[in-house]
Write a structure and sequence with these properties.
mainly alpha; 7 helices
C-alpha cells in the first residue's frame, strides 16, 4: 500500500489539472490510512492508533471535498504556470521515489510539488502530501507516543488547510489571480 501511495504522489506530480491532483492526493491519503489501519490490526491494537487511523481516513475524504469546492469557487481548473515542465517534474519525482524510499519519497515529492507549482492551492496540496509522508513514517517506524504527536499534527493540518483556503480566496479577490510567483514583485 505504501508503494501505491507513492505512485499516486508521482501521478499527482505529473498533472496540471487541479481536480486530478486533488483526486490523487485523496487516493494517496486513503492508502496511507489503510496502511495505518493494517498496522493497528497487525501490531499495535491500541485505541490511539485506531483513532489516528480514523482521523487520517477523515482527512482522505474531507480535505479533497473542501479543496474541490474551493477550486470551483475560485474558478481554477488547472495550474497555468509551473517552475518545471510537467514531464521533467514527474521524472524527477520517479527518481526521488527510487532513491529515497517510501515515506521519504512522499515527503520529498510534497516539497517538490510545493516548489514547482505556482497556484496557492497547488502549494497547499504539496504541504498536505508532505504531511502524508510524515504520517506514513510515523506509522512505519514508531510506536504509540509519536502517534499522539501525529494526531496533533493532523489536527493542525486541518486548521492550515482551512486557513490556506481562506488566504487563497483573499489572494484571488485582491489580485484577481492565484499565481504566487508574481508576489516577488510586490514590495512594501
Amino acid at each position: 500500500m505504501s508503494v501505491a501511495a507513492a505512485v499516486c504522489v508521482v501521478l499527482m506530480m505529473g498533472t496540471s489539472r487541479l481536480r486530478r491532483a486533488i483526486f490523487f492526493y485523496g487516493l494517496s491519503t486513503f492508502l496511507v490510512a489503510i496502511v495505518s489501519i493494517s498496522h493497528f490490526f497487525a501490531h499495535d491494537k491500541s485505541p490511539i492508533t485506531f483513532a489516528i487511523s480514523l482521523l487520517v481516513m477523515g482527512k482522505a475524504v474531507l480535505i479533497p471535498i473542501y479543496l474541490r469546492w474551493l477550486s470551483d469557487r475560485l474558478e481554477v481548473k488547472e495550474d497555468p504556470g509551473h517552475f518545471l515542465p510537467m514531464p521533467l517534474a514527474m521524472h524527477l519525482s520517479i527518481v526521488v521515489l527510487a532513491v529515497a524510499g517510501m515515506p521519504f519519497s512522499i515527503c520529498l515529492n510534497g516539497i517538490l510539488f510545493m516548489l514547482t507549482r505556482c497556484l496557492a492551492i497547488g502549494q497547499i496540496l504539496g504541504f498536505l502530501t508532505l504531511e502524508n509522508g510524515v504520517a506514513l513514517f510515523a506509522v512505519n517506524q514508531t510506536r504509540q507516543m509519536p502517534m499522539i504527536i501525529e494526531m496533533g499534527a493532523s489536527l493542525d493540518v486541518f486548521a492550515l488547510v482551512m486557513l490556506g483556503g481562506t488566504f487563497a480566496h483573499r489572494i484571488k479577490k485582491s489580485f484577481e489571480h492565484l499565481d504566487v510567483s508574481s508576489f516577488k514583485e510586490v514590495q512594501d
